[in-house]
Amino acid sequence: xxxxxxxxxxxxxxxxxxxxxxxxxxxxxxxxxxxxxxxxxxxxxxxxxxxxxxxxxxxxxxxxxxxxxxxxxxxxxxxxxxxxxxxxxxxxxxxxxxxxxxxxxxxxxxxxxxxxxxxxxxxxxxxxxxxxxxxxxxxxxxxxxxxxxxxxxxxxxxxxxxxxxxxxxxxxxxxxxxxxxxxxxxxxxxxxxxxxxxxxx
Length: 201
Hints:
This protein is mainly α. It has eight helices and no strands. 73% of the residues lie in helices and 0% in strands.
């Protein structure tokens, strides 16, 4: 009798969106032993529930994510969650070493993400907002909050979906080609132009 072929399981768009949104709470259970591990594990719940049927399989899958994890969680670091979702989907249909890839990506993504969010976007938007506020315009802080959240969520979603759709090989190619470094350099130039203009006025 031929062995019955295992049914392939596939993630749905709503699972990916839930995972992406829950990823923003990765620092809610922050601790000095595992840093973002518990929040990241919680974010994986929609993915694991879709891919595994029994409670035992789900618990085993989630346990992988309780190991030490730390990266920039909002802008660029979401790409790691996308890659993890893609690899978990593959693991449910075969086998892959997910944690080795996550560990390898968290450092580079943290460096780039922190630069984009804290070194470029935040100072530029804050500088513009402060100028408006000092001129007596109440729109300054409102514009800052809205613009920052739009940029953060837009970049975070784009990076998450890129990680899921293209997987680990594409991300590693992007890192080796220096694409993200070029993007960071462009943002830096724009930032310097804005700051220079503000200083002059």
